[in-house]
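Structure ticket #2291
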Amino acid sequence: MDATRTIACLVYPDVMSLDVTGPMQVFASANVERRRQGLPAHYELMLLGEQAGAVPTSAGFQLVADAQWSCIAPDAVDTMLIPGGAGVQVQQQNGPLLDWLRGAEPKFRRLGSVCSGALLLAEAGLLDGRKATTHWADLDALSEYGAIEVQGDRLHTYDPTSPEAAHLFTSAGVTAGIDLALALVEDDLGRALALSVAQRLVMFLRRPGGQTQFSPMLAAPTGTVARLAILLEWIPGHLSDDLSIEALAAQAHMTPRTLCRLFNQETGMGPGQYIERVRLEAARNLLLDAQASIATVARLTGFGHSENLRRSFQKHLSVSPRDFFQRFG
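Resolution: structure written out below.
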């Protein structure tokens, strides 16, 4: 087993508190689980700020930086995390911090961001030529850095099988930083220990890094045409019915052509795509609640056959229904 690893997290005025405390609690809980097993702590945790001392968060309370980032030897830090928050825009103009990140990056074993912290790494030029993600609300801002391959529909880009993605990585909005931290613990200490941490925190052990950031059923269009709004409310209760374009058009009392135009205009996707996403969301919920077998879930949600359900899960969630159920059900 390796020696104690130092996990450091940057703090700055108006940082998102959960971006800091969420991942750090995962590492702290890993230490607790090891002590329960009669083993020594594996992680040493520290917060780094412009100065040592109290730092105001966007939540209104303060965190305390243990030391100045400028006074820390980067090669003494195993994993450095860069959180996001309302104050990230100011830090994007912090020249000394950006210079420190550029110089320290090769010396860290791992350097990752949480939420909009990716914008700091991008401003430092560290994400050029790499795949990266961030909170869905900041994807456009990240896309302005043209040299980055932005992947908006995933939770994190950490991949222990890839030297590049195991060294420098990003995660999506807020709680995705906890998913990232669990992945790091699993890589460091094994799946069993990570599972113990997840159970203590009442969390999933691991949502795959490629899993979608948010539910399509939560992204309800605003200002939707009345007839289409009524149809969208009707669809979830009739997933096993005939939901062809012709059937939907008849239900909405409009022509198929008008229906397709309104769907694209109001939801950003065609009727077929929308129906598949709603069916997928319903299937996810059934599997999460362990209410039925995979074959029954496929039938109840209108996929018909479990193979159709499997293809949709792989396409949109990068995981099979069986694996999804085993991890989260």
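Closing remark: Residues 216-328 form a domain with the Arc Repressor Mutant, subunit A fold (CATH 1.10.10.60).
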